[in-house]
Amino acid sequence: MSFVAAEIESQPDSWLRAAKLAHTPEVANALPPPDARVAIVGCGTSLYIAQSCAVLRENAGLGETDAFPASEFPHSRRYDHVVALTRSGTTTEVIRLLETLPKRNSTVLTTAVTRPAAQLAGATVALDFADEQSVVQTRFATTALALWRAHLGENLDAAVEDARRQLRRDLPDRLVACDQFTFLGSGWTVGLANEAALKLREASRSWTEAYPAMEFRHGPISVVDEASAVWLFGPAPAGLVDEITTTGALVVQANIDPMADLVSAQRLAVALAARKGLDPDSPRHLTRSIILADQ
């Protein structure tokens, strides 16, 4: 079994640990208070999880919340608090951003308090139990999201059970045989759609795209056909499933927690890699942490 396959399977237990951690005073004090204007940053997978976290916080009525790539942070805007997601704690763009921010107004979610990002932030939430050996990130990302959701007051028991059921199910043969994949989301699941597409690109070099569900009609639907799968996270806009069905594409939609549905997309990435004879732990041109030379 690859490292990433084992890490995918371990996610439900990691989510439960994160949910307990979220209710400790240390984490409550590290994360932004209600009504604070917050920016959440990350790179790659962490950016897409940041997108989901930002929508969830704002929808919960806790204050204006934006998400940005760490390299594109708008320094002209005023934020009360910045939260950075970084599995390695060494990502160059995150480090460079934290160096420019007031330390008291920043929090890092990472795997170790000894790494550079944690040293630069005013507070750190360490998810060491969710660290990974694979280059392809799965467990840390969803565990950070689980912690965030629990911090916002959500009960994750249903998500955990949904994920466990998905892990016991075989992926449909037709799905694994597809050549093109489009992931769609709405609200906080747009970030999950982006992340699912990235997982397939990284692990299996697949042709994948991701869009807000309502945007799919505005051009992207023209790319799908009988060799495509269109995967919807959460409820579909009215009429969209019928429109996709007329293209001949396989519609993938599950009435489960979207975070658990992402687990199935992760499993698909590993299955596609196996079909192509690829190592899902070591995608070409990628390393576990992107560390750039000083300029």
Task: Explain what this protein looks like in three dimensions.
It is a single chain. This protein is of the alpha/beta class and 295 residues long. The protein has 2 domains: 3-151, Glucose-6-phosphate isomerase like protein, domain 1 (Rossmann fold, 3-Layer(aba) Sandwich), CATH 3.40.50; 162-276, Rossmann fold, CATH 3.40.50.10490. Helix content is 42%, strand content 15%. The chain contains 12 helices and 9 strands. The protein has helices at residues 3-9, 11-22, 25-30, 45-59, 92-98, 116-120, 139-151, 157-168, 173-177, 189-204, 240-246, 258-276; strands at residues 38-42, 65-69, 81-85, 106-110, 123-126, 180-185, 207-212, 228-232, 250-253. A 5-stranded parallel β-sheet has the order 2-1-3-4-5, sandwiched between helices. A 4-stranded parallel β-sheet has the order 7-6-8-9, with helices on both faces. It is globular. The termini are far apart. The model has no long low-confidence stretch (mean pLDDT 96).
Query: CATH-wise, what's the superfamily of the largest domain?
Result: Glucose-6-phosphate isomerase like protein, domain 1
* Name of the CATH first level of the largest domain: Alpha Beta
Major sheet size, sense and barrel closure:
5 strands, parallel
Strand arrangement across the biggest beta sheet: 2-1-3-4-5
Proportion of residues in β-strands:
15-25%
Low-confidence stretches: none
Q: In the CATH hierarchy, what is the architecture of the largest domain at level 2?
A: 3-Layer(aba) Sandwich
Give Rg in angstroms.
19 Å
The pLDDT mean sits at 96
CATH topology of the largest domain: Rossmann fold
